[in-house]
Specification:
The chain has 292 residues and is mostly helical. The chain has three domains: 79 residues, DNA polymerase, domain 1 (Orthogonal Bundle); 75 residues, DNA polymerase, domain 1, CATH 1.10.150; 57 residues, no CATH class. The chain has eleven helices and four strands.
């Protein structure tokens, strides 16, 4: 009986042979055909991320502000100003984060300590760094109490600090040292150093009225001083790097540099009167301190 299941007629055997041949041919084709290279999914994903990033980078480079070196205060400059100086966005971000955390640049060298700032980059920017007086003043105030006057040999310190000048005494404002200044009634260590520091920044006093520009000096302090014929130290407004001066603001220095670039060197102060940033009073007090 079971042999009936394995009995095939001639037609059945021919059909089996044809089907087996077709099946074998199909298997052979699948085994021998060239394999297609399947692109990894990670490649597609990488391309989908890389392409927009490259496009974004090209867009940034094409719209990057033109580099323009100009005086700047790292305590005040915004991101656009820093970008026009040629700073990398990473460095700009570090500067802004430092300021947001309460950091203050007291000296020009402080900027060199920002993370990412190279020595070459700092050297390029150094001539244009300007620290506004309000930020430098705190630094001076912190160091004033650390300074000690050098007394003449065998001179008791109590005599130096306690003996004041009698009424009618006058001393040269541009030559007086801290010991002489502290002998004036109402002047101590802090105010004497403040007078000397401002005198150095000015380049010398040209009027006793300039004492009113020094914070917290007593009323009538000018009666103790006279001015010798010493000429003040002058600054060249046509120099490649204009020195800082109390009578020149950051914006005014930018105007002068822009004038150099667009109209050439300055010949006289009258040329600056065409700019609204320079009032007649500004030019008048600058006059003794500038040269061309």
């Amino acid at each position: 009986m079971w042999k009936d299941f394995f009995f095939f007629s001639a037609n059945d055997r021919r059909a089996i042979i044809v089907l087996s041949t077709i099946l074998l041919a199909g298997i052979t084709y699948l085994c021998l055909r060239p394999q297609e290279k399947i692109r990894p999914a990670t490649t597609v994903e990488t391309d989908s991320v890389t392409t927009p990033m490259l496009a974004l980078q090209d867009s940034f480079l094409s719209h990057r502000p033109k580099i323009y070196l100009q005086p700047f205060d790292p305590n005040k400059a915004d991101s656009l100003t820093l970008a026009t100086l040629g700073l990398h966005p990473r460095i700009i971000r570090n500067i802004l984060h430092y300021r947001a955390a309460g950091g203050v640049f007291r000296t020009t060298e402080a900027l060199s300590r920002i993370y990412g700032m190279t020595n070459e980059e700092f050297a390029r920017l150094h001539p244009y760094i300007f620290i506004s007086p309000e930020f430098r003043y705190v630094s001076q105030k912190q160091t004033e109490n650390k300074k000690k006057d050098k007394l003449p040999a065998n001179t008791p310190a109590t005599i130096h600090h306690n003996i004041k000048y009698p009424a009618g005494t006058i001393i040269d404002l541009n030559q007086a040292d801290s010991n002489q200044l502290k002998r004036i009634p109402g002047i101590g260590s802090v105010l004497s150093h403040r007078i000397i520091a401002y005198r150095e920044r000015l380049g010398g006093f040209v009027s006793l009225s300039q004492l009113h520009e020094i914070y917290n000096l007593p009323e009538g302090i000018g009666q103790w001083f006279y001015l010798s014929d010493t000429l003040p130290r002058k600054i060249n407004l046509n120099a490649d790097s204009i020195p800082h001066h109390p009578y020149l603001t950051y914006r005014q220095i930018r105007i002068i540099i822009r004038h150099h670039q667009q109209r050439g060197k300055l010949k006289n102060l009258q040329q600056l009167s065409t700019y609204p940033e320079f009032s007649p009073a500004d030019l008048e007090r600058l006059k003794p301190y500038i040269t061309f």
